[in-house]
Amino acid sequence: MKIAIAQLNPIIGDLPKNAQQILVAAQQAAAAGARLLLTPELSICGYPPRDLLLNPSFVNAVEMTLQQLAKDLPPQLAVLVGTVTPNPQAHISGGKSLFNSIALLSAGKVRQYFHKRLLPTYDVFDENRYFEPGLQANYFSLDDINIGVTICEDLWNDEEFWGKRSYAVNPIADLAILGVDLIVNLSASPYTVSKQHLREAMLKHSSEHFQKPMIYTNQVGGNDDLIFDGCSFALNRQGEIICRAQGFETDLVMVEFDEKQQDLQPSSVLPAYASEDEEIWHALVLGVGDYTRKCRFSKVILGLSGGIDSALVAAIAAAAVGKENVLGVLMPSPYSSEHSISDALALGQNLGIQTQIIPIGELMQGFEHSLAPLFAGTEFGIAEENIQSRIRGNLLMAIANKFGYLLLSTGNKSEMAVGYCTLYGDMNGGLAVIADVPKTRVYSLCHWLNSQGTEVIPQNILTKAPSAELKPGQVDQDSLPPYDILDDILQRLIHHHQSTEQIVAAGHDPATVDRILQMVARAEFKRRQAPPGLKITDRAFGTGWRMPIASNWLAVKNTYPAKYTLTLSP
Ligand SMILES: Nc1ncnc2c1ncn2[C@@H]1O[C@H](COP(=O)(O)OP(=O)(O)OC[C@H]2O[C@@H]([n+]3cccc(C(=O)O)c3)[C@H](O)[C@@H]2O)[C@@H](O)[C@H]1O
Ligand SMILES: Nc1ncnc2c1ncn2[C@@H]1O[C@H](COP(=O)(O)OP(=O)(O)OP(=O)(O)O)[C@@H](O)[C@H]1O
Ligand SMILES: NC(=O)CC[C@H](N)C(=O)O
């Protein structure tokens, strides 16, 4: 039996377009002789639909679109479509009103539903907010082959693989007990660095352990902060990968289930990515491209400083929306270095993007003049420095308003962590492209990019000391430890939840650790006001980061027992 994997890129809530994509894939699959077509989790509405699910008319429209799609599909093809279904028991049991489901469509009708059993409610996932878990493992028979159906998280409870159990049930084990011949998983699994290795290792373990061939179908595309990498794949019952689809692109691939051998046959296995930098690059390009297109923009704008952050964002933007659709604006102030302009222009030329120069000296004088009565007798300080950043932010938004650009902000994760960025200044923007990319990774991505044949990022941008250039001679390391040290402290704090003692025990200077932790705590208010940032790590600021703003935890040392003495009131 030929089975087609449709790795689709839905637009959330665009039901007609998503149904059309499924229909086109189905027609191609049928023409290639497929008997079954697999589509990703919630393929009809896109993942994650979030609070659209609270709207009954949205849920009704999903159901109506599904019924219509069933009629339109080629009759000889069975198709699994991700959808939502009402929970008829909700009013009795007090449960959630919906299931996250897969519908089996064939010969003009919806034949069967399968409900997701394990509902992720951690990091960026919030499925318990909407869904009731399905209670039983389920399968369908097609040409005498019994096919078990699971949905994304249903795979992620392999107790032996993880060395722990996250949920009471393992849907894969239940399907194995039912004696199915093949297990399919329909996913919407967002990209994070190296996650594909984890998925493949986890499924290898499950298919080997249960001696079942498995097909994993993933969504592709950017949806707000989340980037879905696709990379759908299939394994035979020995746990060998027999097929791997494209990363970061839509794809339609075929696998063949051999009824006699009860196994999947070898098919085309695209190579895995050679480096983390390469996969992150593709992820960010897809994230920017899809955010721009899905929000109905065609062109983007950003401030080009001659620094490395804006250089990387410009390169990603040019790859994502086309060089002719990127405008880089150079806004020198009296404190800008000579090389700020020459490096930014060299970058603009390498990329072939448009550039404009708007000096901001006069605007700074205007601010100085207006504020003079109020600021009289005070020292030049952060307030004056930030005015430059805010003038630039204003100019960029004015151009964006006038000509319909999307403004890309350029802050990296290290800066966002410690608040080394200006609210309503360089933080202005609709999408924060590298907000989850630590500064050390910004460098390695730029080096990787330059190693791909032509020099894109001018050497001087790679080698000069990073600087905000908001006062004479300023460099980032006046205010921050060297970036390799900063990033290691941040990685331990943010990703590994280490205490102050653990971070210090790893060899960091205690005073530096204290200072950085305080900066991280105090910058929470900025992160809450930042544009959505593209997620590429397992712990990004944004929807999966839920920290209080008015809090004193990190500021009093992130340690247990806390270092304070109780003072009893008399
Ligand atoms: N908890 C809280 N809730 C709400 N608001 C809070 C707040 N705490 C402070 N604030 C407000 O926020 C203000 C401080 O934040 P903000 O105005 O952003 O300014 P601030 O963080 O003081 O300064 C910006 C920093 O970013 C650095 N930097 C680095 C790289 C590039 C750029 C650039 O702009 O190009 C800047 C710059 O050198 C400086 O150290 C306070 O004056 C206060 O009004
Ligand atoms: N002279 C400038 N002209 C245009 N935009 C600027 C200028 N200075 C700063 N910006 C904008 O503000 C952002 C923040 O500056 P920041 O110094 O943090 O980053 P960078 O200059 O790109 O990199 P680096 O920090 O490594 O020097 C820049 O990325 C850019 O978008
Ligand atoms: N949609 C889902 O169930 C996603 C959860 C899953 N653990 C993943 O990221 O792959």
From TrEMBL:
<comment type="pathway">
    <text>Cofactor biosynthesis; NAD(+) biosynthesis; NAD(+) from deamido-NAD(+) (L-Gln route): step 1/1.</text>
</comment>
<keyword id="KW-0520">NAD</keyword>
<dbReference type="GO" id="GO:0003952">
    <property type="term" value="F:NAD+ synthase (glutamine-hydrolyzing) activity"/>
</dbReference>
<feature type="binding site">
    <location>
        <position position="415"/>
    </location>
    <ligand>
        <name>deamido-NAD(+)</name>
    </ligand>
</feature>
<comment type="function">
    <text>Catalyzes the ATP-dependent amidation of deamido-NAD to form NAD. Uses L-glutamine as a nitrogen source.</text>
</comment>
<dbReference type="GO" id="GO:0009435">
    <property type="term" value="P:NAD+ biosynthetic process"/>
</dbReference>
<dbReference type="GO" id="GO:0005524">
    <property type="term" value="F:ATP binding"/>
</dbReference>
<feature type="binding site">
    <location>
        <position position="526"/>
    </location>
    <ligand>
        <name>deamido-NAD(+)</name>
    </ligand>
</feature>
<dbReference type="InterPro" id="IPR014445">
    <property type="entry name" value="Gln-dep_NAD_synthase"/>
</dbReference>
<dbReference type="GO" id="GO:0004359">
    <property type="term" value="F:glutaminase activity"/>
</dbReference>
<dbReference type="InterPro" id="IPR036526">
    <property type="entry name" value="C-N_Hydrolase_sf"/>
</dbReference>
<keyword id="KW-0436">Ligase</keyword>
<dbReference type="GO" id="GO:0008795">
    <property type="term" value="F:NAD+ synthase activity"/>
</dbReference>
<dbReference type="InterPro" id="IPR022310">
    <property type="entry name" value="NAD/GMP_synthase"/>
</dbReference>
<feature type="binding site">
    <location>
        <position position="189"/>
    </location>
    <ligand>
        <name>L-glutamine</name>
    </ligand>
</feature>
<feature type="binding site">
    <location>
        <position position="122"/>
    </location>
    <ligand>
        <name>L-glutamine</name>
    </ligand>
</feature>
<dbReference type="InterPro" id="IPR003010">
    <property type="entry name" value="C-N_Hydrolase"/>
</dbReference>
<comment type="similarity">
    <text>In the C-terminal section; belongs to the NAD synthetase family.</text>
</comment>
<feature type="binding site">
    <location>
        <position position="386"/>
    </location>
    <ligand>
        <name>deamido-NAD(+)</name>
    </ligand>
</feature>
<feature type="active site" description="For glutaminase activity">
    <location>
        <position position="116"/>
    </location>
</feature>
<dbReference type="InterPro" id="IPR014729">
    <property type="entry name" value="Rossmann-like_a/b/a_fold"/>
</dbReference>
<feature type="binding site">
    <location>
        <position position="195"/>
    </location>
    <ligand>
        <name>L-glutamine</name>
    </ligand>
</feature>
<feature type="binding site">
    <location>
        <begin position="303"/>
        <end position="310"/>
    </location>
    <ligand>
        <name>ATP</name>
    </ligand>
</feature>
<keyword id="KW-0547">Nucleotide-binding</keyword>
<keyword id="KW-0067">ATP-binding</keyword>
<dbReference type="InterPro" id="IPR003694">
    <property type="entry name" value="NAD_synthase"/>
</dbReference>
<feature type="domain" description="CN hydrolase">
    <location>
        <begin position="1"/>
        <end position="259"/>
    </location>
</feature>
<comment type="similarity">
    <text>Belongs to the NAD synthetase family.</text>
</comment>
<dbReference type="Pfam" id="PF00795">
    <property type="entry name" value="CN_hydrolase"/>
</dbReference>
<dbReference type="GO" id="GO:0005737">
    <property type="term" value="C:cytoplasm"/>
</dbReference>
<feature type="active site" description="Proton acceptor; for glutaminase activity">
    <location>
        <position position="41"/>
    </location>
</feature>
<feature type="active site" description="Nucleophile; for glutaminase activity">
    <location>
        <position position="152"/>
    </location>
</feature>
<dbReference type="Pfam" id="PF02540">
    <property type="entry name" value="NAD_synthase"/>
</dbReference>
<feature type="binding site">
    <location>
        <position position="410"/>
    </location>
    <ligand>
        <name>ATP</name>
    </ligand>
</feature>
<protein>
    <recommendedName>
        <fullName>Glutamine-dependent NAD(+) synthetase</fullName>
        <ecNumber>6.3.5.1</ecNumber>
    </recommendedName>
</protein>
